Amino acid sequence: MTKSVFRGLLIAAFFAVVAFALVPVYVPRPAFIPGFAPPPDMWPRLTAITGIGLSVIAAFLPPAVEPPIEGDGSPMARKIVRAVVLFAAFFLYLTLVPWIGFLASTILLTLAAIALTGERTRVLWALGIGVIGTILVMMFFQSALGTQFPAGQLVKLLGL
Asked: N or C: less crowded end of the chain, CB within 10 Å?
């Protein structure tokens, strides 16, 4: 068995465990579901079954020949510092969500991620993506999909 076949079958096994062992146990299914409403386990199960199918297909496709990846010329110390700052940004995000809310925390995380890429020439684009893009995505999820996001203690205290 080649390395790519083994990897594909291993990923398929992971998705199979998720679809057939974890989803039935951890996603509760109510006794009554109206005819027009999908069950709560539909999306996790569909995602896992799609993962099974794609990983089986990938296991038996011939491997692509790719050129070796060249780095950006940064020394290893700079890469390690960027990784540590990235983990710190995610930790800060998780600690700020309960306090300042999902929207403000996500804007800050998006701006930090853009800054960590090293992009310094398109500041207005970065601000537009960080602020306006985040607000538009959140509005879509709230209005079209009915998803509720945490408001945060500070936002509640200010009455917003």
From this structure: N
Separation of first and last alpha carbons in the chain? 59
Distance between CA atoms of residues 117 and 157, nearest Å: 35
Distances (CA, A) of 149 to 9, 58, 87, 112, 157: 37, 36, 23, 21, 17
pLDDT in tens, 57-93: 988 888 777 777 676 677 888 878 888 988 999 899 8
In a domain, 135, yes or no: yes
In a domain, 143, yes or no: yes
**Two tokens at 20?**
């057939």
pTM across the whole model: 0.55
Query: Does residue 65 belong to any structural domain of this protein?
Result: no
- Are 127 and 111 in contact by the 8 Å Cβ rule? The answer is yes
Show contacts of 110-113: CB within 8 Å, 24+ apart: 110/134, 113/86, 113/89
Q: Six-digit token pair at 99?
A: 């306090």
Is the Cα dihedral 93, 135, 44, 58 positive or negative?
negative
C-alpha closest to that of 99 among 160, 159, 151, 158: 151
* Locus of tokens 């951890």: 26
Please state, as a whole number, how many other Cβ atoms lie within 10 Å of the Cβ of residue 57: 11
